[in-house]
Fold this protein.
Amino acid sequence: MKYTFVTLFSNLIEGYFSDSILKRARQKNILEIEYLNPRDFSTNKHFKVDDTAVGGGAGMVMNPQPLFDALNHLKNEDEDVHIVFLTPVAKPFRQNDAKRLSKKKHIAFVSGRYEGIDERVVEKYADELFSIGDYILTGGELASLVLCDAISRNIDGVLGNSDSLSVESFETPLLEAPSFSKPQCYDNICVSSEYLKGNHSKIRSLKLAMSECKTKFFRPEQLLKHKVRKSYEK
Ligand code: ADE
């Protein structure tokens, strides 16, 4: 998988690939990272990339020219690149999007700064737009990293143990059951001894009960989905 980050601030991105799982994936050449700075494409003599909004309003909007030229360049290099814009004005990003996008060969993440990006850029180049939640960040960089991380762990070879993918929260409507490491008792709190007895069907039903409990507390609407699904299975 190749990722191209279209951003004015590549330093915000690079650190995330300098440690842990994504660093290893990059070293193994499973991931290739590239940066494209719209400022490098600006025809303005001061390399300006933003201006006040037509019709007034607070804040600066990113001009169309640098982004048109940067994204044209990108598409000339690879006409199959999948271009994703990060903005709060978009559909929410979900686990099924992460899985679907992990099958692509090349994704470009376009991050806006200031008050946003001229809509003509979005209209012309966006294959998809995503929001990572109902709050406003100072720019799309963090959001692009969230997508990149969630997508990457679905690519073969990125995670050490691919088993850990299938039982996770959001693979089913239920949130994942809590995990415990050793020792069995710590600070006078002991993990259920059922875990140690090795009766796998008992452990499964214990985990299911804990999953349902967590889901009921944190995401009641998801529990409803689970119950509807279960009733169809009967
Ligand atoms: N840019 C600013 N806020 C954002 C959000 N919530 N999601 C995606 N991109 C953003």
Q: What stands out?
A: The mean pLDDT is 94. Residues 86-88, 131-133, 135-137, 140, 143 surround adenine (CB under 6 Å). DSSP finds nine helices and nine strands in the chain.
